[in-house]
Amino acid sequence: MRNKKRLAAFLGVVAVFALIIVPIAAAHTVSITALLDCNGNLSYTVTDWTNSGSGALNDDIEITAGGQTASGAFTSGHTTISGSFSGISGSSVTVTAKAVDTWGDGYGGGQTASFTAHKPDNCQVTPSISTSLQPSSITAGSSAYDKATLTGLSNASGGNVAFTVYSSSDCKTGATSAGSASVSGSGTVSVYSDAVEFDAAGKYYWQAAYSGDANNKAVASVCTDEVLTVNQPTTSTVTTITTVPTTSTVTTTNTVTTQNTVTNTITNTNTVTNTNTVTVPQTNTVTVTVPSTTTVTVPKTVTVTVPKTVTVTKTVTTKAFTPPTLPAKIAITKNPKSQSIAAGGTASFQITVTNTGKVTLTDVTVNDPKSPACDRDLGTLAAGSSKSYTCELAKAQKDFTNVACVGGKPPTGASVSACDTANVKVAPFKPAKIKAVHHVVKKAAPKPKPKPKPKVVAHGLPMNTG
C-alpha cells in the first residue's frame, strides 16, 4: 500500500513537468540550387529551410553571387524563394543563401547554403563584324585607318581585333600590321586600327580579325570588303619639245600675158623685172605698159627661220591632303551594380576608367557627387589603357543610386565623357529579438508520515512500560 502511494506521488511530479517544460525548436536546414546560362544570367531557388510548419517564418534571407546581393523572406512554412542576377562574368559562380533574422519559432539565424553553377559547354555565341575605311581613297604620302564594329557580343573579355593591310585581293601577300585593339563588353562594340601612311600608288586590301574569347567565337571581315585606293600626286610639270626645219623655201612665179595695158596690184615689196626695173611701195596701184607677152618674176625663194626647240610647261596644283582626325572616347565602370548593407553601414565600390579611343587623354577626372570619397584626378591616360581604384561611402541611411562620371581632353576637339551607376539598398534597423527563457519549477515531494510503533501485547504477562 505504501509503495502504491509513493508511485502516485512520483507520477504527479512527472505530470507537472510535462505541463511546464518548453518544447525544443526543430533544427532548420538550408538548400539552394542555381542555373547559369551562356549570357551570364543566373537564376536561383531557395527551399526546405525547416520542417516545423509555421515556424519557418523569416523576414531576412540574404542571397549573394558574383559581388551582387539580393534579399527575400519566408512568409509560410515549406515555401521557396526564387530570383535572378545578370552580368555574371566567368564560366562559373557560387551563389550563397543566409538566414540573417531569427526564425519564427525562436530558433536563431545564421544558417547558410551554397551552390556552384557552371555555364553549359560550347555556349559561345557567334558575333558579326563590319568594317569601314577612313577614308577609302587617298594620295600617296597620306594616311588612312580602319574601324571594326562587332555586333552580338556576350560578355566579351580578353579578346582583340587585329588589323592587317595586304597588297593582294586574297589577303595573302604583302601583309603589314595596322595594330590591334582589345574588345570588352556585350552587344555592339567598335574599335579602331592605327593610322598607316602609304607612299606608293595602287590598291591595298584591309582585313579585321577578332580572336574570340570564352564566350564569343572568332570572326574576320572579308578581304575584298575594304579596298583602299592610293593615287599619284596631281601636281606635275609636262615638257613638250617640238623640232621644225630651220629653213623653209617658198617658190612663186606669176606670168601675165596681155596685149593691152595691164593694171596689177602688188601687196609686197618686190622687184618687177621687165625691160626696165620698177620699184613700187608695199601697197600701191601701178600701171605698167608691157608688150603683149610679159613675164613678171618675183623672188623664187622665201626663207622662214623658227627656233629649233619649243618647250611648253603645264603646272596643275591640287589642294593639300588633310590627315584624318582619330576618334577620342572614354568609358567608366562602377561595381558592384547592386549591393545591400545595414542602416548606418558602409558601401564599397570599385571604379575602372578606360581610354577606349585612339588618342591620349589628359586631365582625366572622376566626379561622384553622392560618394565624394570616390572623386579622383587620374591625370593622363594613354589610348587603350585603364586605371582602377576602390572607394567607400560610410554611414548610409537609405537606398540610393550612385552615379559616377568621368571626363578627359583629347589633343584636339571637344572633351569626352561617360557615366555609370550602382544601386545601394539600405536595410532598415531591426532591434534584436530576445528569446524567452522558461524556468521549470520542480515541486517538492511530500514528506512521508512517521511509521507508528508496533504495540506489543504479552499474553498473561504484565506489559512493560518502562
What labels describe this entry?
Immunoglobulin-like; 4 domains; 8-stranded mixed sheet; 466 residues; mainly beta; 33 strands
Write the SSE topology:
Layout: H1 2-20, E1 31-36, E2 42-47, E3 58-65, E4 68-74, E5 81-85, E6 92-99, E7 112-118, E8 128-134, E9 137-139, E10 142-166, E11 176-192, E12 196-198, E13 202-210, E14 219-220, E15 227-231, E16 237-243, E17 248-250, E18 254-257, E19 262-267, E20 271-273, E21 277-279, E22 283-288, E23 293-296, E24 302-304, E25 309-315, E26 331-335, E27 338-342, E28 347-354, E29 361-367, E30 376-381, E31 386-393, E32 400-409, E33 416-427
The CATH class assignment of the largest domain is: Mainly Beta
Which residues form runs of ≥5 with pLDDT under 50? 13-25, 238-246, 250-278
Shape call? elongated
Average pLDDT works out at 77
Helix content: under 10%
Instruction: Find the CATH topology of the largest domain.
Output: Immunoglobulin-like
Given helix and strand content, the structural type is mainly beta
**Helical stretch tally:** 1
Radius of gyration: 54 Å
Main sheet record: 8 strands, mixed
Kindly state the number of beta strands.
Answer: 33
Task: Tell me what the structure shows.
- This protein is mainly beta.
- The chain folds into four domains: about 120 residues, Immunoglobulin-like, CATH 2.60.40; about 100 residues, Sandwich (Immunoglobulin-like); about 70 residues, no CATH class; about 100 residues, Sandwich (Immunoglobulin-like).
- It is built from one helix and 33 strands.
- The relative contact order is 0.11.
- About 10% of the residues have low confidence.
